[in-house]
Amino acid sequence: MNRLVRIALEVIVVLALLGGVYWYYVLDGAVPEASSVQLDINAWRELVRDDAAQLPTDIRVEFVGRDLIPFAAVEAGGAFEPYTMARTAFQVNGAVGSVVIDSGMDQALAESLQREGQREYDPAAYKRVIAAMGSAVRVAVTHEHPDHIGGVARFPVPERLTERLAITAPQLEGLRAVATDGAVPPALANVKPIDLSAPQRIAPGVVMIPAEGHSPGSVMFYVRAWGGRELLFVGDVAWALSNIRKPAVRPRLLQDFFMTPAEQRSKVAEQVRALHNLSKAEPALIIVPSHDNSYIEQLITAGVMRQRFLVEAP
Does 3.60.15.10 match the CATH number of domain 40-307? Predict the structure, then answer.
């Protein structure tokens, strides 16, 4: 074998190895053909069966902020084109009061987490979220990452949340990473966490569902609204509805090296498959990823939810 041929073969081997690494960490978003995750919507319906007279009548969203990130970070194998990532909180209103799902984050947290030059932040929206939390029947979060639990960790009068907060043990533990100077106020540290070994009704028409994977404390929320409309808030199990429709997960590069702790890919992949199957079996179910700005704006246009919380900030 002459020297040029040997060099050519070595180059081919190196390129093949690099290509394999690139495929593994960036392009491969495959989910399993079958899933062990049980998303039993009939069981959720049964949990709220007696809530007919108190079902939520109004669902609202606040855009506390937005980021521009590459879509390839949202969906493995996706295009390297800008994707608007919404930073949201939701308010579910009914006869007995409101349930706030996710609490946003204050400006200091936003500036430390969002990419400079690719972000926007709405302090007025965050103030409305905080005001709504102070009078809500229930306050809950989809998981313990700062843009979802920050408003809980830094709530100005934590004693007011004590009886309202529906939080799991991993989420409670996650407060420490977000609280100012790492000091969780005693009023929050002493809250008794929910035992979420199975889906649990937390308010009329609202069911909290365990979904560990994106984070140890990840959960989803099923909402049955007045008139039979059903929604499933999936938090960050998927960042875009396309993850579920395709289905495909985030790239390993992001899961393994940019998330703390690392996302449990196998669990998330099974959840995405289960959500895909559920969406096929229940086409009327409205699945809401927390960060899909374009899709949430479509839901606003369609009248499924409205922008701006009912409670005004002082």
Answer: yes
